[in-house]
Amino acid sequence: MTRNSAILIVCLVLVAVCAAHVNAQGYVDILPDEIKAPFSERYTRITSEIQRTTSDEWAGAYSRYVGETWSDVLVWTPELGFAAYRDTCSNGPRAWVNFGSARFENGLLFLTSEQTFTGEHVLAIKREYTPVKWGHQRWLIPTDELELFAYAVNSGSSDDYYRFYSKSDGNADKPKGQPELPSQFKHILNRKPVKARIVQIGEKPEKWYPDVTIDAGKDKGVIVGMSFWLTGVKNTELKISVASVSEKTAVAKVVAISHRYDYDDEGNPKGPEPEEFRLTAGMRVSSLSPKDE
Fold first, then answer.
1. Model confidence at 200: pLDDT above 90
2. What does the pLDDT average to over 230-249?
3. CA-CA distance, 278 to 252, in Å (whole number)?
4. Can you tell me the distance from the alpha carbon of 232 to that of 220, in angstroms, rounded to the nearest whole number?
5. Cα–Cα distance between 57 and 48 in angstroms, integer?
6. Distance in angstroms (rounded) separating the CA atoms of residues 24 and 121
7. Which of these, 84, 139, 152, 253, could form a disulfide with 161 (CB 3.0-4.6 Å)?
8. Where are the alpha helices (DSSP H) in the chain?
9. Is the pLDDT of residue 104 over 80?
């Protein structure tokens, strides 16, 4: 089976184009000098220090997945602070930056911005992070998002848990076992998937898909940012992300959709093209990510 999603194909092409043009600081070079210069000076000093010493297991370079053509990079050391940027080649190239001081205290990492400019090129960054070991990997999780990280791990979706900063140590192997989370979040790692039905379809926007309401809320442990995947619909993969939660329901937005078709040996689709996909009440969703085939 082969994916035949126009959106996915375009994204993959853009990723290839991006990779060919990215330098050590992504697209930061396109920023105005008054923004680029202080960031680049800090970033260069920190990366040089990281390459020079490996004595600190937590200091170093981290990255996180934002989207098909988007990524964040964070570098930090206790002495020199942090520098972080996001870039993309979608409707771009574009870039956002931030830098400042960093301190490790009581098992937590605190980042304090020192940038003096404001506006569209500022990268928003959380102030407090909890270091988390997961097998051979090291992660920095915003302390107020530890619960969401636990649900992402529980879902089995690498797209979801790699939206958090993981240390770029050159080892791309999937982490083994479970992350060493604070005790109050460990139970989430072993939870059974939350299963729900779509009970209401919102008003359809001009483009994309409408929001949906599912019959699972705080009563089943659903939280904002949690992902669900469509089940029981052949050849269609649809992912929704929870935007708001009430006691027994939650409203979610469609964030990704793709289709799978069967092809013959000559590359022609077997059977007619499927009809346009429509969301309907009664469809089932699960917090467990579907396995790749």
1. yes
2. 94
3. 16
4. 21
5. 16
6. 18
7. 152
8. 6-21, 33-52, 146-155, 158-161, 183-186
9. yes
> Radius of gyration of the chain from Cα atoms?
21
C-alpha closest to that of 175 among 153, 208, 198: 153
Q: DSSP string of 111-157?
A: EEE-----STTBPP--SEEEEEEETTEEEEEEGGGHHHHHHHHHHT-
Angle CA 46–49–54, to nearest 5: 120
DSSP-derived secondary structure letter, 205: P
Q: Which two tokens stand for residue 101?
A: 């001081």
Q: What's the CA gap between 125 and 99, in Å, rounded?
A: 9
CB 208 within 8 A of CB 254: yes
- Cα–Cα distance, 90 to 11 (Å, whole number): 9
Mean residue pLDDT of the chain comes to: 86
State yes or no: cis peptide before 182, omega within 30 of 0. Answer: no
Quick one: tokens of 192?
Answer: 């059974």
| Nearest C-alpha neighbor of 138 from the set 66, 190, 74, 60 | 60
For residue 7, the model assigns a pLDDT of: 36
Task: Classify residue 8 by burial, with Cβ atoms within 10 Å: 0-12, 13-18, 19+.
Answer: middle
Confidence of residue 270 (pLDDT cuts 50, 70, 90): low
Domains, in order of start, for the chain? 15-190 (no CATH), 195-286 (2.40.30)
Q: What is the pLDDT of residues 164-173, one digit of tens each?
A: 999 987 666 7
In this structure, which amino acid lies at residue 27? Y
